[in-house]
Write a structure and sequence with these properties.
Tetracycline Repressor, domain 2; Arc Repressor Mutant, subunit A; 10 helices; mainly alpha
Length: 234
């Protein structure tokens, strides 16, 4: 009995130590992600250096590599944070009783917020340009980006029936078309803010949202295409 009683405090101390170590690791990871956001905003994704990210967080390169393999890895950690934050915002604003026009307005408001976040918009554009400039990485990065978008938007789509689909091709097309709207509007707004000012930006977002929410939106397969697919299968 005495020996068993003596091991209990030791086990408790070990568990506490592990918990503290895990907490420190999570804090370090968050600090590195926050530092990466600042360095990417300052230097751009392509030329940002890992040692600068680590230094901005007050960490060593070894600490960086303990959490991330490379810049691509830390980008997706940032992307994951953004998607989770967006999803939480949507779920706070949407519910099963939201009307069609309310859903339209919420989508417009949140897409406008993404585009107006200059650092975020430019980082997403730069990352895609980086993937295009490195063809051997492009497919892998595009597939991972699609996977994260699909997983990250699943919950909010319960309240956006106009965007729901179980077809992988439609999901990919929908994701790409939303991405093209955000990227294209953001790029031209920041390139020529007079030619595409805030009001014009909002109108363009609304036009894209209404088009993508329409039953006959271009991301959905046409009835003719589905008939052809069924004939091929038979």
């Amino acid at each position: 009995m005495d020996s068993r009683k003596q091991t209990t405090p030791s086990r408790s101390i070990t568990q506490t130590s592990r918990g503290e170590k895990q907490e420190r690791s999570l804090v370090t990871r968050r600090e590195l992600i926050d530092a990466a956001r600042r360095i990417f905003a300052r230097d751009g994704f392509e030329v940002a250096r890992l040692q600068d990210i680590a230094a901005a967080a007050g960490k060593t390169r070894g600490a960086f590599y303990a959490h991330f393999q490379n810049k691509e890895d830390v980008f997706f950690a940032i992307f994951e944070q953004d998607i989770a934050r967006d999803q939480q915002t949507y779920l706070q604003q949407l519910n099963k009783y939201s009307t069609y026009e309310e859903r339209i307005a919420i989508l417009i408001k949140n897409l406008e917020a993404i585009i107006c976040d200059r650092d975020r918009a430019l980082l997403y554009l730069e990352f895609k340009m980086y993937a295009i400039r490195h063809p051997h990485k492009r497919k892998r990065l595009a597939e991972l980006h699609l996977l994260m978008c699909t997983r990250g938007t699943a919950a909010k789509l319960d309240f956006l029936p106009e965007l729901h689909s179980n077809d992988p091709e439609e999901i990919r097309s929908r994701t790409a078309q939303f991405g093209s709207a955000i990227d294209g509007i953001a790029l031209n707004h920041y390139f020529d803010p007079i030619g595409l000012d805030e009001e014009q930006t909002r109108r363009r977002i609304e036009s894209c949202v209404r088009s993508l929410m329409a039953p006959d939106s271009s991301w959905r397969k046409t009835p003719e295409a589905e008939d052809d697919l069924h004939r091929d299968e038979n």
